[in-house]
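Quick check before the chapter quiz. The format below is the same one you will see on the exam, so make sure you can read both the input and the output lines.
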Amino acid sequence: MSNKMKIVVIGGTGLIGSKAVNILRQRGHEVEAASPSSGVNTLTGEGLAEALKGAQVVVDVANSPSFEDKPALDFFETSGRNLLSAEKSAGVKHHVALSVVGTDRLTGSGPGSLSGYFRAKMAQENLIKASGIPFTIVHATQFFEFVKSIAQSATGGPTIPLSSVLMQPMASDDVAAAVADVALGQPVNGMIEIAGPDQIRQDELVRQYLSATGDARKVVTDAKAGYFGIAVDDQSLVPGDNPRLGPTHYEEWLSRTTPQKKAIERQSAPASNLPGNVTKVVTLLLCGIVFAALSKVTLTMAAETESKEAKLTQLFSKDLTDLPGKEGLMLLIEYPPGSSDPIHRHNAHGFIYVLEGSIVMQVKGGKEVTLTPGQTFYEGPEDVHIVGRNASQTKPAKFVVFFVKEKGAPVLVPSN
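Here is the expected output.
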């Protein structure tokens, strides 16, 4: 498949999809970055037939907006059936899907874990295998970019309990490069594995990240902690024999991505004046720092280092004994001027109360609203938060949010 092809990337605006789109375009192919924002919706089938017209290859890197059992299963089954049916009608010659190393080994744990998500991924893979379309399923290990979410999901105040299970994570750039290579190759009608160049224990992975980012929390090794509530061993999260290895080492990635962040946090982190609040600060964004464009003419060097990243401070958390498996979590969120969030969801009931400034909020299917001090906003477990930003480019904004969520589940999940 060396000639110019039309390639459709489902989830083409996400972390991996956008990188894969750029790589494939640089190699001279016609590439469509398909997502609901571009009018292509695999859940409803909207725009699929038109997008796939003339396509030889489809790359599916879309992810479920929810990690909960039923929503994840509904997403992968509905999306998979619609997409594969449209591919058959369009005569697509190669279906490439991104999945997770160890998917079949992560499906056995109980409520409150991410095991239901991996069962949903297995259902997706089974649909692909039964479709009759030539395919390649790419199993990737965890991304370096998601180490922060591992730390967030396991945090317990100033300490983070984590197991020492063996991992072999990789950079998202290397994932995208591998997916692009697979898309340009022949279907294997099976699975291939990709991973980082080095194995590392989960507790040490997060420990190094905290050290590199200047985070004062401490990792405590806990053999029972598992992985997002899933019981694991040293074979669960690492590839088998002869995986494709990405070239980027973890230390190299940390040195490239964290020094600037540390400098910004030292200069811009404000001291809270709320009595009795927790001093730990974690980032709201899971996939890196979002910077606003800076004017080279009017801004000084100091202004150029100002962070546009939302800051999150945990105020209070409590197990909800009347709601088994649930917890309440209260957070203070501070938006610097011009700050905005990526598209995300919380998989929780969220109740927002504005304290200072004005913020703009919108969930998918709802109206965009601007909130001022004293006003409130609600989003439910199924809502996708498509707009969250400070309404002002010059003044900060501050609000409190109270979540009712699954105990131990991540407070924020990136979404397309």
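If your answer matched, good. Residues 260-307 have pLDDT under 50 and may be disordered.
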